[in-house]
Specification:
There is one protein chain. The chain is α/β, with parallel strands linked by helices. It folds into four domains: 161 residues, no CATH class; 318 residues, Thiamin diphosphate (ThDP)-binding fold, Pyr/PP domains (Rossmann fold, 3-Layer(aba) Sandwich); 249 residues, Rossmann fold (3-Layer(aba) Sandwich), CATH 3.40.50; 131 residues, Multifunctional 2-oxoglutarate metabolism enzyme, C-terminal domain (Rossmann fold, 3-Layer(aba) Sandwich), CATH 3.40.50. The chain has 34 helices and 24 strands. The strands form five sheets. It has an eight-stranded mixed β-sheet. The chain has a seven-stranded mixed β-sheet with strand order 14-11-15-16-18-17-22, with helices on both faces. Strands 19-21-20-23-24 form a five-stranded mixed β-sheet, with helices on both faces. It starts with a helix and ends in an 11-residue tail after the last helix. Belongs to the alpha-ketoglutarate dehydrogenase family. This is 2-oxoglutarate dehydrogenase E1 component. One of its GO terms (biological process) is tricarboxylic acid cycle. Its cofactor is thiamine diphosphate.
């Protein structure tokens, strides 16, 4: 028992201390006591250990001891091996590194009381006043020269470093090198910056610009929404530091994503947008050439600015009202730009995301983003995150109700990102934190966070009254002089500026605003960027369905050969081997093409032609329904580099890039990423595939606020393609419908294309049309499931070699056109069931047409098909979906079918009855309903007709 008492500090919660001590020993054996050094030296003799052994052996050793609940045995160390006072000092240093942030002075409103934390008190380790002058080894805590310092000096340095206006959370990070890097930057200077006079004046100038712009707008445009930055003006200091530090470290492009708060200020004072242009937007004079446009605090902007390291291109992404959904969009755009640049690009293109305090933990999209931030298909080398922490969230929220964690930034710990918390009233500390954040990201290429703790002087918007729900907080805010005044008084007191210099800065800035100009404008006019994309071939193009997409037969055969080749000795799964053998026969013309072969040939022809292809989704490499097999797996090897073969990436030398990514289990984040990629790369076919069509439900915000409306709101073009498996096959409510009705409802102004291809040739031409045609519009495809291997859903190589995507496919059997009385129109897999039924009944007066493109509706092509049957009076729209779903309401309300019909025609509907659920879950009920739909298309027609609007 006595031995256990002597060594109890080695157990449980003190494991981090042991690890820290061991890492200190590895760096400098002389920095630890003789007893510990002897013990750690003995670890070097463990089997497999060497001088540079990692800390795992010592942790494992102590873990085993703790697991057994036994004291340290004499075989490991003697009872008197350690000086407990020395151990206490090192434990206390470690405690400040872990917990010192809880005592940090980071709230400019000084509302929070310092919580009692025993581990931060010297008495917790048995020290008294008499011990303060005693000298101890500092371990890895290097705040001054030498290896020893008095307890008083150590305590003072620890508190200055971790309990001041700048603190950092980082000890949860596993990488010791990264932790040491942070310690080496903060501990020697005690987290206290020491800037030159010019830098301090620059900080004051940035604060002045931020505050003066807000006050100018507040008085000039009374009551108008602008989502003021007042109370958080140090964010402009942060942005200035980010840009200039990044530029000096080789960054050439910075893409910024942010919501409303402070956006106008960033546009003007960071990106250099003309105040005159902003004023015109407030006054409604600036009308962009857009069909819809957007409010001023959603608009994006780009500029090239000068930095100490050279020009940097800044882009502020267009952002909808959703607070955080722009973040993966920015990441996708960054990823595309980095791939364009090639090697070393992660240090040249930087994502910078600006968050609000309540939105960071409140919006699940952030968790999705952090989850894939370091993955192979989505990693951009880390993002820099700035949290404008108003300490209030929206307006009425209390932190106790806004989150379950202490800090709003705790979510970033899942990515092991260091988090710098800084008091916005200390703009020099803000600048230091931002400088370190950029340096950390550039050094380690991972996420890093600056939590700018400030306040919001006004309400959520300028018409809000926060005093109603936050009276005490806003009394303090009302008494606060403002960050600019606090800092200006400090500089004046230090003699850095003259007493009247700060007021002169305000007057000078206001004078320039009166003229619609900026006092300081960093924008470089006429700067030419080497890696800029030219979108001019795709701008202002009239929509057309026409496009020659055929590929010569000899080329198709060559591509088929390349698609079916695997490296020597590569062992395929038997089922996959059969598919590859069948594809060889398809390429030789011995078998008709199935869907997977038609799709793969489309991708192969595009990469051979110089168009990149990127496909992502859950299980996209193999294909959810075992049809694509774009990635082949060696059955004898699982290592990624050696165990896979991607035929589409090996079509020919000098081909365009091909990527297929089995994405993380995420929809909104991944689709937002792919949309961002598509907005930055017009020469790549960018495909997002839902595992089932209904997975688009979870990505609806991206579809609604970006993909369907981005061009109308912002003039933002993107050729992104959505593959949404759709079809009623008894799979239940969630695995039947791709929710076609939603995409139809969002269709207007030729904003995108909604197609339901039914053959391999159709998907081949459709995917090729998406790139070959000089037009970049999103494409929504309702793809099949059972048709992937349907005996009739096949095509020939000749169909791929000639022709193009057919928006309407007419009757395939021979009929006497004059005897046709009924025309059944449908889409998707239902066609094959209707065709089989019609043939079984041997009907000679009914034809079946396939509508392959629902939007834009092919009026001319459809009218041409109707005209072939002069005596047909009944036109039936037949769909699998319930009446209130699918394409019916859209077709009926717009009268697209009726517009192509004559006065003699009557339009009828055959469908499932209206339903609150997309489909039934009982297979027997499904089968009965499906049978009723098929029979209804050919049976007596009732009065269920299209309304005449």
């Amino acid at each position: 028992m006595r031995q256990f008492q002597l060594n109890s500090y080695l157990f449980g919660a003190n494991a981090p201390f042991i690890e820290e001590l061991y890492e200190t020993y590895l760096e400098n054996p002389a920095s630890v006591s003789d007893q510990w050094r002897d013990y750690f030296d003995s670890l070097q003799n463990l089997p497999g250990a060497g001088r540079d052994v990692a800390h795992a052996p010592v942790i494992a050793s102590f873990a085993q001891i703790a697991k057994q609940g036994k004291p340290l045995s004499s075989a490991v160390a003697s009872p008197g091996m350690a000086d407990k006072r020395q151990i206490g000092v090192l434990q206390m240093i470690n405690a400040y590194r872990f917990l010192g942030n809880h005592w940090a002075q980071i709230d400019p409103l000084k509302r929070q009381e310092r919580p009692p934390i025993a581990e931060l008190e010297p008495s917790f380790y048995g020290f008294t006043e008499a011990d303060l002058s005693a000298r101890f080894n500092m371990g890895s805590f290097q705040f001054q020269e030498g290896s020893q310092a008095s307890l008083r000096e150590i305590l003072e340095a620890a508190r200055q470093t971790y309990c001041g206006t700048l603190t950092v959370e980082y000890m949860y990070m596993a990488d010791v090198q990264q932790k040491r890097w942070i310690q080496s930057r903060l501990e020697p200077i005690r987290s206290t910056p020491s800037f030159e006079v010019e830098t301090r004046k620059r900080i004051l100038e940035r604060l002045t610009a931020a505050e003066t712009l807000e006050k100018y707008l507040h008085t000039r445009y009374v009551g108008q929404k602008r989502f003021s930055l007042e109370g958080g003006e140090s964010a402009i200091v942060a942005m200035d530091t980010f840009v200039n530090t990044a530029g000096s470290l080789g960054v050439q492009e910075i893409l910024v994503g942010m919501a409303h708060r402070g956006r106008l200020n960033v546009l003007v004072n960071t990106l250099g947008k003309s105040p005159k242009m902003l004023f015109e937007e407030f006054e409604g004079k600036h009308v962009a050439d857009l069909s819809a446009g957007d409010v001023k605090y959603h608009m994006g902007f780009s500029s090239d600015v000068n930095t100490p390291g050279g020009p940097v291109h800044l882009s502020l992404a267009f952002n909808p009202s959703h607070l955080e959904i722009v973040n993966p969009v920015v990441q996708g755009s960054v990823y595309a730009r980095q791939r364009r640049r090639g090697e070393g690009a992660q240090n040249q293109v930087l994502p910078l995301l600006i968050h609000g305090d309540a939105a960071v933990p409140g919006q699940g999209i952030n968790q999705e983003l952090l989850n894939f931030s370091q993955t192979r298909g989505y990693g951009t080398g880390g993002s820099v995150h700035l949290v404008i922490n108003n300490q209030i969230g929206f307006t009425t929220s209390d932190p106790r109700d806004a989150r379950s964690s202490l800090y709003c930034t705790d979510i970033f710990k899942m990515a092991e990102a260091p988090i710098f918390h800084v008091n916005a009233d200390d703009p020099e500390a803000v600048a230091l934190a931002c400088q370190l954040a950029i340096e950390f990201r550039q050094t380690f290429r991972k996420d890093v966070v600056v939590d700018l703790v400030c306040y919001r002087k006004l309400g959520h918007n300028e018409q809000d009254e926060p005093m109603v729900t936050q009276p005490l907080m806003y009394k303090k805010i009302g008494q606060h002089p403002g960050t600019r005044k606090v800092y200006a008084d400090k500089l004046a007191g230090l003699g850095v500026i003259a007493a009247d210099e700060a007021d002169a800065m305000i007057a000078q800035y206001r004078d320039h605003l009166d003229r619609g100009e900026l006092l300081y404008n960093p924008v470089l006019s006429g700067h030419s960027r080497k890696f800029a994309q030219d979108w001019s071939p795709f701008v202002s193009k009239e929509y057309t369905d026409e496009c020659a997409t055929g590929v010569p037969l000899s080329e198709l055969q060559r591509l088929a050969t390349r698609l079916t080749e695997a490296p020597e000795g590569f062992v395929l799964h038997p089922r996959v081997a059969k598919i590859i053998e069948d594809r060889k026969a398809m390429g030789a013309g011995e078998l008709p093409l199935d869907w997977g072969m038609g799709e793969n040939l489309a991708y192969a022809s595009l990469v051979a032609q110089g168009y990149g292809v990127r496909i992502s989704g859950q299980d996209s490499g193999r294909g959810t329904f075992f049809h694509r097999h774009a990635v082949l797996h060696d059955q004898n090897r699982e290592k990624w580099d050696a165990g896979i073969h991607v035929p589409l990436a090996n079509i020919q030398p000098e081909q365009a890039p091909f990527q297929v990514i089995d994405s993380v289990l995420s929809e909104s984040g991944i689709l937002g990423f792919e949309y961002g990629y598509a907005t930055a790369e017009p020469h790549h076919l960018v495909v997002w595939e839902a595992q089932f069509g209904d997975f688009g439900n979870c990505a609806q915000v991206v579809i609604d606020q970006f993909i369907s409306s981005g061009e109308a709101k912002w003039g933002r073009q993107a050729g992104i393609t959505l593959l949404l498996p759709h079809g009623y096959e008894g799979q239940g409510p969630e695995h039947s419908s791709g929710r076609l009705e939603r995409y139809m409802q969002l269709s207007a102004e030729n904003n995108w294309q909604v197609c339901v291809p039914s053959t391999p040739a159709q998907i081949f031409h459709l995917l090729r049309r998406q790139m070959v045609r000089p037009l970049r519009k999103p494409l929504v495809v309702m793809t099949p499931k059972s048709l992937l291997r349907h005996k009739d859903a096949v095509s020939s190589l000749d169909e791929l070699a000639t022709g193009q995507f057919r928006t309407v496919i007419g009757e395939v059997d021979k009929f006497d056109a004059k005897k046709v009385k009924r025309i059944v129109v449908c889409s998707g897999k239902l066609y094959y069931e209707l065709l089989a039924e019609r043939r079984a009944r041997e009907l000679k007066d009914t034809v079946v047409l396939r509508l392959e493109q629902l939007y834009p509706f092919p009026n001319d092509a459809f009218a041409t098909e109707l005209a072939k049957y002069p005596n047909a009076k009944d036109v039936v729209w037949c769909q699998e979906e319930p009446r209130n779903q699918g394409a019916w309401y859209w077709i009926a309300s717009r009268q697209h079918l009726a517009r192509s019909m004559g006065a003699k025609h009557t339009l009828h509907l055959v469908s499932r009855p209206a339903s609150a659920s997309p489909a039934v879950g009982y297979y027997a009920v499904h089968s009965a309903q499906q049978r009723e739909v098929i029979e209804g298309a050919f049976g007596p027609l009732g009065q269920d007709q299209a309304p005449r609007f």
